[in-house]
Amino acid sequence: MLDLDPTVIHDIDRADDVRTALADQIRDTIQSPTACGTVRVGVPVPGPMRPIDWVRAQPSSEAVYWSGRDEDRTVAACGAADVVSGSAAPVDYGALGRALDERLDEAGPGVRYYGGMRFDAGQPMAQGRPDRRWAPFGTYRFVLPRFELVETDGALRLVCTLVLPRDADRADEIIGALGVAALPGPSDHTALPRPRRRQDVPGDEEWTDMVRWALDAIDGGALDKVVLARRVALSLGASMDPLLVLSHLEPATPECYHFAVRPANGAAFVGASPERLFRRDGRTVVSEAVAGTRPRGETEREDEALRNELLQSPKERREHAFVRDAIQDDLARVCSTVRVPEETGELALARRRHLHARVTGTLQPDTATADVLKALHPTPAVCGVPTADAAAAIRAQEPFDRGWYAGPVGWVGRDAAEFAVGLRAGLVEETQIALFSGAGIVEGSAPGREWKEIEQKIGDFAAIMGVSDPRMASRQSS
Fold it and tell me: Of 57, 76, 128, 431, which is most buried with the most CB atoms under 10 A?
């Protein structure tokens, strides 16, 4: 007779109990004559378990992960009960808002659609340089997950979302999917494969030419600021689970938004963003102006010197002022009142710091979340000033497709929402990670200094992969 570990037997029994309890709730809800609209049913799950480990173990290729910066709530999700998506451009924000509002008007508490949109929502794919890996994401894509493992205040809950009456004939299908769901998820700490090759797009010389072009445009009055980005492709020695990257990145980047979006049968967009685009709670909206960068010091004295250098830098304060003033003006389009702090502060992270200002407003009545997205995205922190001219410059100058990099990533609920800016992020597929990062070019910028700033920003990814120097010895420029 085979001897089984009693702990394993207990875990199997516990998982079966959880699935059985949730399956009973699913059947009862579907069979209820009064149930309608979007309904969430859930059961508690004994811990401990990391939501990121749970979603990594699920057979469904559709996956979402979200952990807010200031919210004690983490969501790992798989499958799709509903999807609101589009590939046309420019985005019809009115149609997007109506589609989400119609679904959420009939939704119960806690229902959230997770997703985001392209940086350049005026183009479905970059003209002349499309990247097929972004195609499954569309211009925008918001998913209502079928199953979620939600961690709140240390407690875990497994949730299933039903859309009725549409799901009324799908009880067996939904319960069947629940039956093969892994529970609990593995809690492993598998090492990430080390990169074998790096390719920079643009390379050193092309980057220098791009920055000098931007500085000439600024000097000539055509632009005040433009944010130019680079893509760093790391080729790996083995295929890799994209969510494993996030499982390593999350503990290494505290005080950030952590997210993953993986459409069915596609690559995954994962990141640890320090920057909030906005949070909505009823008619109250909060945004942040974040710009300017300095690393953290190795000693307290060095750290304080770098902090003072950032706070007193004319170049960095000029860049931050563009972002702060633009956010104030943009919020004024959808708000009855807007409040901006008199003093500029800092956002101190584990590896770097930024100039920071919190901007708050009171939304006008009947303002949809999509209206706020339209007003705020893209901010000068990721695009430039004037916005339209900076976006045109980015299209003309950058030799790659940004896709969802620097776009809004987050969730939408009924009269509530939160979006981060998709920064410190990468597109992960099989044996390659494409990292994206940018630098704001204003009067006083220098190509070499901006290149170095971007190297610092991709340092979090480099560190978790065991690469102390993100530039690496084996590098190709393109």
Answer: 76
